[in-house]
Description:
Eight copies of one chain form a homooctamer. The first copy, chain A, is α/β, with parallel strands linked by helices. The first copy, chain A, folds into two domains: 3-9 and 18-109, no CATH class; 120-246, Rossmann fold (3-Layer(aba) Sandwich). Chain A is built from eleven helices and eleven strands. Chain A has helices at 3-14, 20-28, 45-49, 62-73, 85-94, 130-143, 158-162, 165-169, 184-189, 212-219, 234-246; strands spanning 33-35, 39-41, 55-56, 78-81, 99-101, 106-109, 120-124, 147-150, 173-178, 196-200, 226-228. In chain A, the strands form three sheets. Chain A has a five-stranded parallel sheet. In chain A, helix 4 runs parallel beside helix 5 and helix 6 (130-143) packs parallel to helix 11. Chain A starts with a helix and ends with a helix. The G-H interface holds G 127-128, 130, 149, 151-153, 156-157, 159-160, 163, 179, 203, 205-208 and H 28-32, 37-40, 42, 45, 58-60, 64, 68, 82, 200, 202, 210-212, 215, 230-233.
Amino acid sequence: MDEKTLRALLARVKRGQASLDEAVAALKGAPFERLGDLATLDTHRTLRVGMPEVVLAESKTAAQVAAIARTLAARGPLLVTRLSPAKAGPARRAVKGSVYDPVSRTLRKGRMDLPARGPVAVCCAGTSDIPVCEEAAVTLEVMGVEPIRVYDVGVAGIHRLLARRDDLERARAVIVAAGMEGALPSVVGGLVGRPVIGVPTSVGYGASLGGLAPLFTMLNSCAPNVTVVNVDNGFGAAFVAGLVARG
Amino acid sequence: MDEKTLRALLARVKRGQASLDEAVAALKGAPFERLGDLATLDTHRTLRVGMPEVVLAESKTAAQVAAIARTLAARGPLLVTRLSPAKAGPARRAVKGSVYDPVSRTLRKGRMDLPARGPVAVCCAGTSDIPVCEEAAVTLEVMGVEPIRVYDVGVAGIHRLLARRDDLERARAVIVAAGMEGALPSVVGGLVGRPVIGVPTSVGYGASLGGLAPLFTMLNSCAPNVTVVNVDNGFGAAFVAGLVARG
Amino acid sequence: MDEKTLRALLARVKRGQASLDEAVAALKGAPFERLGDLATLDTHRTLRVGMPEVVLAESKTAAQVAAIARTLAARGPLLVTRLSPAKAGPARRAVKGSVYDPVSRTLRKGRMDLPARGPVAVCCAGTSDIPVCEEAAVTLEVMGVEPIRVYDVGVAGIHRLLARRDDLERARAVIVAAGMEGALPSVVGGLVGRPVIGVPTSVGYGASLGGLAPLFTMLNSCAPNVTVVNVDNGFGAAFVAGLVARG
Amino acid sequence: MDEKTLRALLARVKRGQASLDEAVAALKGAPFERLGDLATLDTHRTLRVGMPEVVLAESKTAAQVAAIARTLAARGPLLVTRLSPAKAGPARRAVKGSVYDPVSRTLRKGRMDLPARGPVAVCCAGTSDIPVCEEAAVTLEVMGVEPIRVYDVGVAGIHRLLARRDDLERARAVIVAAGMEGALPSVVGGLVGRPVIGVPTSVGYGASLGGLAPLFTMLNSCAPNVTVVNVDNGFGAAFVAGLVARG
Amino acid sequence: MDEKTLRALLARVKRGQASLDEAVAALKGAPFERLGDLATLDTHRTLRVGMPEVVLAESKTAAQVAAIARTLAARGPLLVTRLSPAKAGPARRAVKGSVYDPVSRTLRKGRMDLPARGPVAVCCAGTSDIPVCEEAAVTLEVMGVEPIRVYDVGVAGIHRLLARRDDLERARAVIVAAGMEGALPSVVGGLVGRPVIGVPTSVGYGASLGGLAPLFTMLNSCAPNVTVVNVDNGFGAAFVAGLVARG
Amino acid sequence: MDEKTLRALLARVKRGQASLDEAVAALKGAPFERLGDLATLDTHRTLRVGMPEVVLAESKTAAQVAAIARTLAARGPLLVTRLSPAKAGPARRAVKGSVYDPVSRTLRKGRMDLPARGPVAVCCAGTSDIPVCEEAAVTLEVMGVEPIRVYDVGVAGIHRLLARRDDLERARAVIVAAGMEGALPSVVGGLVGRPVIGVPTSVGYGASLGGLAPLFTMLNSCAPNVTVVNVDNGFGAAFVAGLVARG
Amino acid sequence: MDEKTLRALLARVKRGQASLDEAVAALKGAPFERLGDLATLDTHRTLRVGMPEVVLAESKTAAQVAAIARTLAARGPLLVTRLSPAKAGPARRAVKGSVYDPVSRTLRKGRMDLPARGPVAVCCAGTSDIPVCEEAAVTLEVMGVEPIRVYDVGVAGIHRLLARRDDLERARAVIVAAGMEGALPSVVGGLVGRPVIGVPTSVGYGASLGGLAPLFTMLNSCAPNVTVVNVDNGFGAAFVAGLVARG
Amino acid sequence: MDEKTLRALLARVKRGQASLDEAVAALKGAPFERLGDLATLDTHRTLRVGMPEVVLAESKTAAQVAAIARTLAARGPLLVTRLSPAKAGPARRAVKGSVYDPVSRTLRKGRMDLPARGPVAVCCAGTSDIPVCEEAAVTLEVMGVEPIRVYDVGVAGIHRLLARRDDLERARAVIVAAGMEGALPSVVGGLVGRPVIGVPTSVGYGASLGGLAPLFTMLNSCAPNVTVVNVDNGFGAAFVAGLVARG
């Protein structure tokens, strides 16, 4: 509530146009909805940060996911991430018209209706990184932004990446997922003049430390346009890239 | 070099309008300048990524910094970061008109002449984080983007942050530096619908692990619009935020 | 045995009112009970630290838990924690009247009869942290202290927490469970003038490091009223909060 | 601002007893004081969390410390921690009547005037832990709580601790500082029925990992009344113990 | 494409001996094959680095492995590593004549036809390291290099190793796999004047940290002829050893 | 082979009492037995280090364990450790008269016939540490040394340990297993004048880091008679304690 | 106090041969001496663990060391470790007849008068490990045990170690210090049938992690007679080896 | 000593052509030289591993370095590494004709006289990595192998590397030093068919973890011809590359 709205409200109280109860309610606000002790849904998040609350299903039960999804879907576009096939059923049934995709492990319904200034490229180093990229691509679609897929272009065969340079250059932001040594974001960052969002993936073994190795690689990038999100966090990368694309 | 330019060049070779030597030179290119075995300066970086090469002075000698700074300043705006007062002299003398700032530890000259769509907010949790923020603010200024300083608004007194909400909301991107527990980016991320770039700082002791603790905090942020750069990397955060602000 | 009791005992020996054997036994004491080589139960713990020995079932067999639970339940209130549904049967049958709760994974019987000076608030950042909170709530109830549940109020929607400020303010101590970035205890700590006990949870992925990331966040809290317990240790947090509430 | 105050304020607006400007000011509030871009002092912290803002001097300059100390001392008791002898001069001169102690590395003036229900014991394992304990003892004194010093009673000579049991038992809370293996809090925790606050110290070498080893020891304590603060954080431990002692 | 080839091509364009389309194709090249969005196979890798692309099956589905294997096998020798028995079927059926080995978990067909200057020794410390050694031995065979197996010769019985010294000395390079403390490469390195490639294995428990302990052991080797590859990476060790043996 | 034996052998060669082949064989020796490429058994280990080779079954197949056990049992006492019930069958059948114990997860047959100067105490902090202690106790028995079991005497109830002081004092060495915070070895070390061997166990959760936390605790012990072995390594602790007891 | 002494004391109380005050004093005991709040010296430690309290000077001031040394030297042999040359003066002057050695950084006076059953070997891998070995050798001498020095015999030239086998074999225990990869204890452990105590040293760089790499190497030793102490802890290793040698 | 030599020696003993003393000496050997307790120099190392013992000066005193250097220089080429300018004097004076270079921090005299089959390329990502590269280049020169310097060609400007492809391709092995994210070895590995030896450097800050981040990057390289040495270990990389170049 900004000062202007506040002054208007107080003036209406003063003039008797608003009751005390109305004013108290407006001033205390309640931009959330409680589902018993289960959840306190942040229903104003779209206004505030440009995207409805997204459900991270990983450590919730199938029943919890379904209950939350139903409430959110009644208010706008729905996106559930990290939803395993085994847990997807109840939520899919709870939200008529929702679509489940087993590669990206997402459930979604609807999309936001905001204009974007251009597409976002989604790159990955190897075939095994594709599920993370697809989580990003689906998120972009729900945000109303076009994803350009540039897959399996890792640095051990750098010519594969150079051949896709046109696709990179028309993007407003570039998401780069990579496991193992995680070097791809630095190389991409040296090629384009857009924000590059690195997504370390848990693809690898031994010294990849479950994704911490590529995470540290990306944080130390010598290309200054690289920022980083958590391991396997395709959703977060896409959300930020979508904000950039929207302007 | 895209296909169209390539075809044009080859056509000119065919027609005898371009000599073989010219064509070889154009095709092999050399968008860099070698300073003996000291450095291979990437002089086309502005065209490619929107910013000239920036000199990280930390592990270079004063003489190396001066030599590289002189070469770069002859071609465009100059920015040297992590330049300690003890090493600043030679570079400052080598580049006439350059300005050294001991708080941000930067040397700079000139600024880029590109339009920005709006300012960038630079926040920090505590007074000790200010040097990192100033490195970011100086970088933004060299990029031609206005910084809005929002300092000492850490989460243990959350009302200080809420009081600066207007400043946050007019920014195109928000940089948030924080040491110790590094919680501020998450809170800011929940308030604004813009990309938030978290900069963990090495402010703290013991379990702050030299900045790794706030780094991990930010990577795990529950606010999905937060991306992260390396510890104390004010420059990198500002570079990305500047790209977002330019559009 | 304090000096006064000691003098009294010696005086009784001197006067022949106590035999040597009695005195030796009293002086050597044995405030524990051995169950063969299986366990050495600390049966005087209630007197000493204000709570009977609590059984951590996690790395014990179902039979071991049942044997220990039976012995303890014969002497006072019983609390078994981290008892998976698969292992709960034998202990529940061994202690008539005991109650098993699958969310908190506790088995309990009875409660302590000590007065408390007020309630303890139990907060969490997200729905997935609820099992840890419920372990805390059950522990408080066995200690005879009222828990106030404040769930799903994480920092990405800070208004949800501010709306529950009254509940926080009437508590004698506040338990705050959070996974991922673990920022909630710092924000709560800045709002109340009571001890805040942070419980990092293992909710999260990748850079959450199985709960170490929120653990470090909380240890570095800039709010000075925050102390921390082990990852997912709802019981320990509740035990300390209960001691504070008792006074 | 609770609902009752809010209703009263709105009623006064309605009756014309309060002007719109007054009401706006009251509703927007500003419980802090800005020192230019240097600091945003949280001047209402005493009301909110029971202690004025305390200055952590470690990564501030001597001039910054002096400026902040002068402002805070004008409003109530002053405590500056981690202030090295080399930086103490300006702040001591800026605040007339302040006292600097080189062992605890604190500067202080005045004390709070709140009743405490009993003393707090401050224990340490070895002589080298004394500076951390003295930081805690000074903090308690500024809070108006009596510290009981129980020093050099580490677990390799457990009888030294047992001999001080009376001192432990009359305390409302016990602070236990220990470096190296950090085992003392567990042993103390098994002896008393009060909250025990473990302070790992950076005393040790090699596998002590700069205090992380005793930190992990304490977090894993089998005594359930132990909570933990950051390495060497005597101030934080004392602040929480003081809150417990005040009741 | 080196300068000489480039000049020749341009001269042919100038003389009309090559069409523009031919020249564009030659200059843009395309040494890879796209399988939809699934993979971008680097089909020129043999020319460039001396070995066809090898398939790491670990985080790919059985169907993905089969599709990629079929494409690669059509162009030269095939090697698939980390292929569990459960996933091997489809790929084995997709490539007629391929052989699956459950100990090394490899699928292969054919071998390279390049001369080697001598054999490569493959040593291991204990029986449990054999699967990693067999992955190395199979890789060497596909490269056309003879492996000498020297198994179960760990440092706790150093005479077992000394007895195999002749075998070590006729090798052009030595691969040494070891888990637990990983000391064997240092001892071997002190005995032979050839490159020694250490392969830490995940054999061990507790402080072996999943193979990180032997990894660090080998990186710190006081024998200067030791280099190291990732944990359990028998393939990588063999590939480098094979390059050395080929000359 | 010491110098005296060497001189004697050479003298016999000189005198024609030994053939060249005999001498070569004696000088090259072969105190091991190869089982194909499976294992190189160190059959002289008893002479050299006082104990036959012991089989660590953890990462071997049931068939490998059985083959190795059969060979070793033919030459002396047999001890197999970390043998899960699921894998025990073939080895038990391969060695007639062998005994499998599921608590310690050992298979054994026979015992060494060497005199010991006294018993070894085996202590643990909690019931969950018993399997590690039993592995130690069985190992001692195979070595011909008497174990004294002192179980469940953790530091949170220190009187339970003090009550067993007589048992500790008659031991030649003391093994102390502890998980969680691992403080028990320090306390025991302060009570007895014998070598104390700490065995960190993987009992615990969260910040116990799979046993690394108690490992570091023990390495930092302020009691100077404490040495440490790997996590859960009851066998190693017992082997060293047995050597001490033997003298 | 054992039961027999206790019965005798009580009998004397009963017979009036001991006053109540005498008995209380005897039963409460006080086997330590307080130096104000500076230290609580454990003056009965020799009786209990076989060695007087040893002073770790590292994080104490020169004045603290001198005060404690003077008190301890009045009661028996004195050993101060980790005493830098800069801090040694006051303690050396405080204890007449004490000797300071800058290589081992020890101050000592006198030696214990207990018989040993044999010498202890002190080995190291490289010249840089000698200070740690000398700390061990001095400690052994104060304990009355003969050290055998076997220096610079690292595993990259294993024949240097094999040539000293006689020295190793006459020792009752073997101390092995090694930095970098820390492999030497495993090799020594495979050669002798005595307890081997590994001392990781901080000699090395990069991946030696300040001594953690050799620490982990030794903990994972495949030689079962190896136990480990903290990084650079020559004193601790010698203390345990001395106990073994004494019997 | 191989079997053939052994048979010849024994035959000479038998025929009386060799005395027993001669044979004992030959069989016991002593391929090292003891400098008191200071060092046990491995003087046969050249024969065994192809390079004389090299002195790592880092944790030795100037006097120790000088003494060891003098002994080694009397027997062949000399190389001392990690010798700071402050410690170089005594060694340089001790070895007439030796040359000290402050960039690579090496002291050397002479070179080995063995033929190499080709040069070795030494690449680095940035100017700050040059000292490590120079240590490698000097080592190669002492081994008699030509180094090709390819400096400052990091992945953020990949065209700089591609322009030096000819230099890479004529090398027998390629050394690649890189700090920060350490991505360069993977890119080089994808370009050449030779062994690539990655040297992580400690250049960087924050999340570079003192060189551990690029170390892990290189260990996880998707280019299979990359092996890795310790942080900043230019010497080790060059030694292995030199062995490859020699053949």
